[in-house]
Amino acid sequence: MPSHKSKMLFIHNARLILADKIVRKAWLLIKDGKINGYGTHKKISKAKAEVVNAKDNYLSPGFIDLHIHGDVEKISKTQAKSGTTAFLHCLHADRIENYGKKIEKSKQAKLTGAQRLGSYLEGPFLNKAMAGAQPKRFIIEPKRDKLLKVIRAAGKDIKIMTLACEFGNIEKILKLLRKNEIVTALGHTNASFEQAEKAIDSGAYYTTHIFNRMGSISARCPGIIVKLLLDERITAEVIADGKHVHPALLKLLVKVKGPDKIVLVSDSIAAMPPGSHKMKLEDKVYWLNNSTISGSTLTLLTAVHNMVDFTGMDIASAVRMATLNPARIAGIEKRKGSIALGKDADIVIFDKNFKAKMTIIKGKIINL
Q1: What is the enclosing helix (H) or strand (E) of 158?
Q2: DSSP H/E element including 216
Q3: Cα–Cα distance for residue pair 10/223, rounded to 1 Å
Q4: Which pLDDT does position 45 carry in this prediction?
């Protein structure tokens, strides 16, 4: 294996996954942590760069997980093993005064793998009836003064916040979130079709794990799910483990939204500290004692594999849902999320069985 000291890395004999296609027998040159070039039929002096033979495996942009829970250092280390190179640290509903402390601790963590991009607050402004695994005692109705307290406590670290949109003054809440450059993720909600439409018209364009903890669909009350599916402005976050969402619904989601409007997330809680939740692990899914699904053990590499298997979509499209699409939602698409000149050299090499063979973060090979 190449040493980790070189400033130049030349990877060849790869199936290079670009945004819309896969290129066989491709090469990629990394210099000073950035993508310096890529293409086919190139030779390079071994004196200039360390050389990696990809052995005809897939070479993809590193995966970006926007929704994952747990200890930040553990997330960074374990998720890099399966090709995740960056993530948002997701926090459950909590007391407002606790967010600042938790985020500061998260920011101070020593990371050895995947990079932390900021915070995703899955609460506290949710519908208690749709709480799921969120602690109901901390869930509150969205109010401007309460939201300001959360923002002041957390600073500019918040990138995404889940919001139930069936409450009053939703336009003012969304305006405040936009002003602070926080993406609104509609979720943990029992909103009607009309209430969801109002929120989207007011600037919401993302969802928290579509289908999960959302109201049901009926003949005369289509509800929020139908609005999220039909509205082209919405990008839908989904947990593609085949347990949180039935494979048939994943196929429907792809057919209705298309691969450019879907973001794959793990919603994994595998890195949560022991004893932090009363959960049982069954068939790779965590459950609360009341049989409520609590979280996954999913990795984004497995999610990509599942989308290919469950929906029949091509690998390049499935990869895009775990790379470029989340980069766009996080506002970092100019530096991450695809193979392009000058972008961060965040790379994963995986084989035809979707097993990670190498992860590279900003040009450095990570020990798997």
Answers
A1: strand 158-163
A2: none
A3: 51
A4: 62
Q: Is the pLDDT of residue 283 over 90?
A: no
Q: Tens of pLDDT along 156-168? A: 999 999 999 999 8
Tell me how far CA of residue 110 lies from CA of 89, 131, 200, 220, in angstroms. 14, 32, 38, 52
How far is C-alpha 266 from the geometric centre of its chain's CA atoms? 7
| 276 has pLDDT over 70 | no
**All domains of the chain, ordered by start, with CATH?**
8-59+339-366 (2.30.40.10), 63-330 (3.20.20.140)
Q: Which of 25, 32, 18, 13 is nearest to 340 (CA)?
A: 18
Q: If pLDDT is split at 50, 70 and 90, which confidence band does 169 have?
A: confident
Query: What tokens appear for 72 in the block?
Result: 């930040």
- Classify burial at 111, counting beta carbons within 10 Å of its beta carbon; exposed 0-12, middle 13-18, buried 19 or more: middle
Could you give the 3-state DSSP secondary structure of residue 54?
Answer: coil
**DSSP 8-state class, residue 367:** P
CA distance 161 to 142: 12
**Which contacts (CB < 8 Å, 24+ apart) does range 325-329 have?**
325/235, 325/259, 325/260, 325/261, 325/262, 325/263, 326/64, 326/65, 326/66, 326/263, 326/264, 326/265, 327/64, 328/235, 329/66, 329/160, 329/183, 329/206, 329/235, 329/263
Question: Which pLDDT score is estimated for 3?
Answer: 41
Query: Which pair of structure tokens corresponds to residue 55?
Result: 């052995």
Residue pair 300/81 in contact (Cβ under 8 Å)? The answer is: no
* CB count in 10 Å sphere of residue 3: 7
Report percent pLDDT > 90 for the chain: 84
